[in-house]
Amino acid sequence: MRVLTSPQLNPATETGWRRRWFDIIYRHDSRPSRNFDLLLVVAILASVAVVMLDSVQHLHARWAHVLYPVEWIFTVVFTLEYVMRLVVVRRPLRYAVSVWGIIDLLSILPAYLSLFIPGAQSLLVVRALRILRVFRILKLTRYVEESGVLMTALWRSRRKILLFLFTVITITIIAGALMYLVEGPNHGFTSIPSAMYWAVVTMATVGFGDIVPQTAAGRLVTSVLILIGYSIIAVPTGVYSAELANTLRQTEAAQRDGRGCPRCGLEGHETDARYCRQCGELMPTPFSC
Amino acid sequence: MRVLTSPQLNPATETGWRRRWFDIIYRHDSRPSRNFDLLLVVAILASVAVVMLDSVQHLHARWAHVLYPVEWIFTVVFTLEYVMRLVVVRRPLRYAVSVWGIIDLLSILPAYLSLFIPGAQSLLVVRALRILRVFRILKLTRYVEESGVLMTALWRSRRKILLFLFTVITITIIAGALMYLVEGPNHGFTSIPSAMYWAVVTMATVGFGDIVPQTAAGRLVTSVLILIGYSIIAVPTGVYSAELANTLRQTEAAQRDGRGCPRCGLEGHETDARYCRQCGELMPTPFSC
Amino acid sequence: MRVLTSPQLNPATETGWRRRWFDIIYRHDSRPSRNFDLLLVVAILASVAVVMLDSVQHLHARWAHVLYPVEWIFTVVFTLEYVMRLVVVRRPLRYAVSVWGIIDLLSILPAYLSLFIPGAQSLLVVRALRILRVFRILKLTRYVEESGVLMTALWRSRRKILLFLFTVITITIIAGALMYLVEGPNHGFTSIPSAMYWAVVTMATVGFGDIVPQTAAGRLVTSVLILIGYSIIAVPTGVYSAELANTLRQTEAAQRDGRGCPRCGLEGHETDARYCRQCGELMPTPFSC
Amino acid sequence: MRVLTSPQLNPATETGWRRRWFDIIYRHDSRPSRNFDLLLVVAILASVAVVMLDSVQHLHARWAHVLYPVEWIFTVVFTLEYVMRLVVVRRPLRYAVSVWGIIDLLSILPAYLSLFIPGAQSLLVVRALRILRVFRILKLTRYVEESGVLMTALWRSRRKILLFLFTVITITIIAGALMYLVEGPNHGFTSIPSAMYWAVVTMATVGFGDIVPQTAAGRLVTSVLILIGYSIIAVPTGVYSAELANTLRQTEAAQRDGRGCPRCGLEGHETDARYCRQCGELMPTPFSC
Fold it and tell me: Mutation test of the interface with chain D: which of A57, A67, A125, choosing the one with the most D Cβ atoms within 10 A?
């Protein structure tokens, strides 16, 4: 994925302050860059917290005069960081249109928009997306391979899960239409889209209870729908479990036998292999004992 | 399954326009037939969307004069398509009584019925079932084998899941009767069927909240019922996971190798093995014996 | 389990009508006994349906004069059946105290009790438990081995699931007490048992909504409780899946290699075994090719 | 874990009454110590029951004069036990700051606090945590290895489950902010934290129904959020199932055999194998080399 490719230094600025800032901003291995990462994560979390607190009415009423300037300070800091990222990278445009670049832009834009359009400030919550940067920073730790395994299994089961979602949506449409006909608009099933919303809420076992069947026929259809949903919930779990077990087994198998054939160099032999399956050469005994 | 058998061309019409239309309608490999498939999917989705929008009251009030003719246009188009399918196929009756034929008929019938019976038009939502045609069209892609694996696992676990459903229904009846006795008709448990509906909603962890226990005894029974449901929910997931893992493993094993070593007899070689990993003997080449 | 041991014929009556009735009632292999089984299942389902319908008020109001005698007819039939079972079996007492004997007794007792205690008739729903007889009758079909696999896996995971239930109950007590302190009696958390009921309903993701947190602190505790419940729901499913996969694998492995050693007779060899692992005798090659 | 290290006897008191009480309190193998354990579990359960019953208003109104002294008796008994534990153990401070020591202290402190601060008595429910001692006492039974397997699998999947929780929290923040913008404060989404609470309740399929979307846009966002939650619920279950299956397999493999055949070198023999299944060579007896 494009997101994961490391940005490259602007070659025209391989020395001087730009080089130093590039290292600080985009790398995660030296002391200053780690401090920068830490500060950034703290700033992101703090700015999200400020937006969240500001949305609580009684806090807003009392602390608006503090929260408002703090929001602007974060906006200025993030703007400076955004400009800096554009300046020191080799291809500024490529960064600007990358997923991270767009998130970074979106996390400062609403503040400036709010100068012209009242209320736009609420959109600052988009900053929450910047929290995902934590994953990027954690990239250097052991969490990478774990998330790699998780994503590989998810990627492998994508077709099965898409098929599943498609089936669920089809059932939702039909169940929604059926309930609209059975219950009628008097009991909250005012339209097919409303009934479909109810069907999703019911099949996924959320069950808010804002719309409920009230006729005997409606309750029967609901019971059947629930039992279908209950049986179907097994599918994504089953698919994902099976693929994950598969991925784990293969990762293990790849680490299993480190021996390479002395003649043709083929790797990945089974542990009990005594001869290379490619060229018939006698293999060294495992662990040389 | 009958659904999956390809319909055959009417032999008396193997040339001419009928042959061309058969290819367009029933096949999915040439350019015109793909365009037809695409148009059909778009028309189905659009017609379902129209029925859905028409069910929303304020949209109906304002746009009925547009939505009504559009519904009729789709009805006419689908009628023409249905007739065409009957004309070009070798055995029209067999198509008419197949699952797809019945769905196709049901998706146009309500419109004509609405001329005589007011309100029948709402039944047009049955058209949603035609969306399933998308699967049929996707048949030629890689989704087939995926859904094959999913269905095989589901088919294999059918008996276990039936047993599970039977157990759930038995528990539902007994829990419903118990709650009817414990809570009485004052708290919404007005009859055993109502209480059974509540038991299904509760055990499947949907929990609408339209009927809730209000006595201490009722809450105790509910807690026990929930814990039973919570333990039992593991069964279909576990069954399906295990069967799916099994199916995946067998699919994999089938792709491995049936060759035995001519000298030592060891089996289970990888497909690219040229020499026995046990004794170094040259293996027969795969599929050439 | 005692339930599964076949009842034995009274030896003093090995001929004559008792023998015939024993075969009809307790066996499932001849034509008359199958008809009896079928009739019994139909009668059980019908009697449960009658009790269920009778609990619906407007049906009761109108059809009580029909439903009441029908209930008594079923009671008489089941009483005759119960007496018959006692008469023809070798040890009547042993049948009377078995699980099935008690269920059979309980399914007729409430009717007679209702002659003295008004309302006892509602207890007739206990008859629903007789539906479980269907499993017994199905015993001769392929469902037996399926349910055997399901039960074996459940039996194997019993300790893990007990540990899990114990953990859930401990968390429930602590969460209930915490919410009782945090929310107080004004918001429905009127006592620790009430709060525990709420905690079970919440952790199992049922969420009726009859009791909900209304303070910020209560909502925070609820969110944490839900996330704990959400992570913990994985345990029974995971345990059961793993045990079921294990059971399936072992069943398969036992069927894997049917070869017995020609000298010592040991069975259960791996497929690639060329010599008996017990006595070193050369094994016949699998499938004799 | 520190909790699991056995406390050691005070060496200065290896004889006399301290030694006897140490054996009784901290060991679980002799008759008196087992009686002590049993008494302790009963006392804990009874004291928790008393606190629970006392929280029910109509029971408190009627039985307070009984429950109040009983609570104090348990407090005195637990205080004596706590002092005893401190006296007989080798390092009293180490016990006092251990998890169990803190729980033991917390389970008596609220009673004494209630003499000065009214209402502190409710905190006595902390005693419920002492129930966990049952696990400690069960340590000597077969439940240990079972819980060992469960905990090992949980420990192995900790990183994956943390990643999952982190993802869920990020989605929660963004979904909460989105719903706050879409629905506005009129429909219960009064602030971003409130909307986040709603998002947790919804994604975990609890669905209390105290806050529900009422606009079409809000319902659409909700449906999407539910489908995401429905797909994501597979992750912890899948992770845990896979790791548990892995742990079970390894436990099994560890019980298999490390012996290699002295002639052909084949490994992976069953434990009861006396001859190599590949070449018929006599195997070395297990564990004798």
Answer: A125
Average pLDDT in the D180-184 region? 83
From C49's Cα to the closest Cα of chain A, the distance in A is: 15
pLDDT of residue B287: 43
Instruction: Report in angstroms the alpha-carbon separations of A76 from A69, A114, A191.
Output: 10, 14, 47
Which residues on C lie below 8 Å from B185 (Cβ)? 57
The answer to whether D10 and D89 have CB atoms below 8 angstroms apart is yes
Question: Can you give the pLDDT at residue C140?
Answer: 46
Q: What average pLDDT score do residues D64-72 get?
A: 88
Task: Give the distance from residue B87's alpha carbon to the nearest chain D alpha carbon, in angstroms.
Answer: 42
Of B205, B237, B266, nearest to D205 by CB-CB distance is B205
Could you tell me if D125 lies within 8 Å of chain A, comparing CB atoms? no
Pick B207's closest partner by Cβ from D207, D264, D266. D207
Q: What is the dihedral of CA C144, C149, C155, C160, to 10 degrees?
A: -150
If you write DSSP's letter for every residue of A120-172 in order, what string do you get? GGGGGGGGGGGGGHHHHHHTTSTHHHHHHHHHHHHHHTHHHHHHHHHHHHHHH
Are A17-144 and A158-235 equal in CATH topology? no
Residue B197 and residue A208: Cβ atoms within 8 Å? no
Q: Which of D208, D278, D279, D281 to mutate to test the interface with B (most CBs of B within 10 A)?
A: D278
- For residue D89, give the 3-state DSSP assignment: strand
Q: Which two tokens stand for residue C112?
A: 């007679």
Nearest residue, CB atoms, D245 vs list A165, A193, A245: A245
For B70-82, how does the pLDDT look when each residue is reduced to its tens digit (9 = 90+)? 988 998 999 999 9
Chains in touch with A (≥3 Cβ pairs < 8 A): B, C, D
CA gap D24, D33 in Å, rounded: 4
Q: Please, what's the largest Cα pairwise distance for chain D?
A: 84
Among chain B residues, CA nearest to C158: B231
pLDDT in tens, A44-74: 888 888 888 888 888 888 988 898 889 889 9
- According to the CATH classification, is domain B17-144 in 3.40.390.10? no
CA distance C199 to C176: 6
What are the domain boundaries of chain A?
A: 17-144, 158-235
Contact predicate C143/B159, CB 8 Å: yes
Q: CB of D261 within 8 Å of any CB in chain C?
A: no
Q: Closest residue of C to D238, CA-based?
A: C238
The torsion angles phi and psi of C210, rounded to 5 degrees, stand at -75, -30
> Which residues of chain C from 145 to 184 reach within 8 Å of chain D, CB to CB?
159-160, 163-164, 166, 170, 173-174, 177-178, 180-181
Considering the domain A158-235 in this protein, what is its CATH number?
Answer: 1.10.287.70
Residue-wise pLDDT tens digits, D205-250: 889 999 999 998 999 999 989 888 776 766 777 777 777 777 776 6
Q: How far apart are CA A63 and CA A56, in angstroms?
A: 10
Distance CA B196, CA B215 (A): 18
- Listed as own residue / partner, the contacts of B247-256 with beta carbons closer than 8 Å and 24 or more positions apart are B247/B149, B247/B152, B247/B153, B247/B156, B248/A242, B248/A246, B248/B149, B251/B149
- Record: contact A205-C209, CB cut-off 8 A: no
Of B227, B234, B241, the CB nearest to C165: B227
Give pLDDT, residue B145. 62
Nearest residue to C123 via CA among C132, C111, C133: C111
- How many Cβ contacts (< 8 angstroms) between chains B and D? 14
Q: Which of residues 225-254 of D touch B (CB under 8 A)?
A: 237, 241
Q: Which residues contact C149 (CB under 8 A, 6 or more apart)?
A: B160, C244, C247, C248, C251
